[in-house]
Design brief:
274 residues, alpha+beta, six-stranded mixed sheet, 13 helices
Amino acid sequence: MSSPLSPSPRKANARMSFDFTRCLNELAGRDLLPDSHDSAFVVGSLARGWGNDLSDLDIYLVSEKPWTGASSGTIRVPLSHPDVPTEHFYTEERRWEVKYWTSAQVEEILAKVSWAEFDQGRTVGQMLTRDEEQLLERLLVCRPLNGAEWVRRQQRLIEESAFQAAVVTHCLTNADDFAEDALGQLATGDEASAVLSVRQAFGHAVDALVAAQGECGRLVKWRARRMKAAAPQALSYERYWAVETMRDFDPDDPATWVRDVMSLCKLLSMRVEI
């Protein structure tokens, strides 16, 4: 007998045949669609074909004017207009979440990742908040519902900006910091902490590697998916998964595994191109 969380055959079929073309009609029917907008696009796991029966349907709407309709929450961002209204609701098969951005907000965020800003030695964590970073990252791999030309124009601007380089640099910095922590912890005999630190170092090194290939997301839950999508020559998926799942870890000799992973992190960092 399946558990209560196991997807039913009906739900599985609903997921596989989800009709994105009905999204705008659904929003309009709930008075959640602006009268005019530059673009509407699906983001996140469903947009990439990575979703499941429990995945939210995330939609971003970009308009010239701020949204003044119904909203259940607000994201605050450090911009001239700091509010990003959000709304959520449930249909039969899943939860929907809508975020309302303005074109001016997108433009201002892009200005934060200029090459002039990057040349000041700033990483993405210093340039953008997590919500701003996620907007740019998701724009690169979204599914337009309309306004596809607007999306393509933003994608070109993002690709021409220092966004990718800033993400890569941020991940490399974190990888180096955690590797240094692991080295110091080993030196004092704190092997348990060294294991945890080197796992963090490896994750950031992998994120840097795939970001250099255009996969700029940093959510841990999708790291394996990003590895498969990027397929970097410097690290096979099989080798990545062996380390991620600690396949060769010996509980009686953790220091050896820590040193091996530290060496791999150093090698990967050297092979990342910014």
